[in-house]
Predict the structure.
Amino acid sequence: MRKGSPDTWAFAGAVGVVLLLGWLELRRPGGVSIARISGGLLTIDLLIRAGIFTIILVGLNLLMGYAGQVSLGQAAFYGMGAYFSAILTVKAAVLGISPAVARAWWWPWFVMGGAAVLVGVFSFLIGWVILRLRGHYLAMATLGLGIMVYIVLRENLGIPQLNLTGGFDGIVDIPRLHLGAFALWPESRYYFLVWAVALATIVLGLNVVHSPVGRALRAIHGSEAAAESVGIVVPLLKAQIFALSASLASLAGSLYAHFQAAVVPDTFGFVPSLELVVMSAIGGMASIWGAPLGVLAVLLIQELLRTHVLGLIPAVTAEMEPVIFGALLVLIMMFWPGGLVSSRRRRPVWGER
Amino acid sequence: MDALLEVREVSKSFDGLVALAEVTLCIHPGQIKGLIGPNGAGKTTLFNLIAGTLVPTAGDIRFRGQSIVGLPPYRIAHLGISRTFQNVQIFPGMTVLEHVLVGLHRYTLSGVLAAAARTRRIKGTEAALRERACALLDKLGLAAWADTPVDSLPFGLQRMVELARALATSPQLLLLDEPGAGLNPTEKAAVSQLIRKIRDEGVTVFLVEHDMQMMMGLADEVAVLDHGMLLAEGPPVEVQRDPQVIAAYLGEADDVA
């Protein structure tokens, strides 16, 4: 981050908000909690999920908003991280990992880091191939990748006798994280861990954006032909940013697994991937600060729908959610293409220049 | 004198349709070489083959004695060939200065991870690059628009920005695809002036241009393409008198009429 830039102030503000909310939840001065102030809308649970999604969104915004490469399968990498953590902590014995290692406090952290690296390498290789596709074709390829990963998780990685992923039922009893003997639980403690990582991810995102790499990414977005003509190694840079975004999603997945203590494949299917794109669009794709804003906006809308709206309409179930979000995405693309962070509302753009 | 770029019997066909047939030509260091020919003669195809956007069906292209056939455009850019495009290729939303900084990208050598960690080295090179970019904008008379988004500039200036971006890579060979298209006579004269200046600073220029008058006053040597074949090559005055060339251009005029 550049010293003295508006980002520095925004960051200081974000740290302040995170600390204030965390302190409220931890101390509850005079019985005041976040949930009570917000009429039950803002819970510690929601804030933790917001932190986890923010980590994914920073990567997704770099990929979609800056490099201009659409991913409709980002939840796949989120799922890979979550399942790596779940399997290697819960099913360590099946895999022949010594209990002494698997029960050590550092083991889940080691798995989390290892998963992020592995998913990064995997997505780099995949990205090298599929990022040659452009526009709709790339969107289709990532969509396919997302569905494939979902099915592989659901179908026990194709080796049912080991029952590593637990099929439809997933994996339960995932251990909480510890630092030595210090438990990062209850939720009010876990909240600080998640947001420390989320804030670090934001700094990382801002650094990339304000570096020559960020400039090169925007150039690729604008014209790949021109970017290549000045010597930008376009396929390499695209694969690198794809890998970075996948690594971050994997990290978020691991944090999610240790938070929920359970994972099921449906959390990482197509609809979650779509939700991530909606969050990105609402917050503003071409912006790092759009990440936390878009996440919070979507989570709050979801919460409002669940608690206040959907119940009022008979015969409408939670399955209406994707429909509502689809409609929301269309409206935003038409009337507010820059998302929450963009100050000017634009008139719809009918067709390209 | 050794050639800087040699195009040897290069052919290119698209699904059996021949765009270029065994074209051979040479560009010598320090030259301004022109490429002319009627629409559809294969001029831009030849440019795209040299820049690596297309791969020839047959033949060889050598830059400083090394074959560059099959290399991707960014590798060819690293070797020292830079270009502008017939349909201006700008980066929407990015300023003039940022365009030049993108042109300087090959001097940054920073990976994604180094950028994410914002290492000291990145901060250092960034300041140096900005200075270099500003100097280039000064030279090209674009300094006043440094912080203007390029998509809000008039077309003539967008072409200049493209040229600035190409020059930022410090090329040995500059490929200009119709630098005068869409410009008024005054702007054309200014561009001609600038191209000469660029050549005088040691950059070899190969340009496609429709405006015969501009080309004749500018190029040291001209090659003429027609229907994918090299019709003539030589000093502008000689080429202009070549009966085949006259026929090709008159033929085109007939078609138009």
Q: What stands out?
A: Residues 120-139 of chain B form the longest helix (20 residues). Residues 253-257 of chain B have pLDDT under 50 and may be disordered.
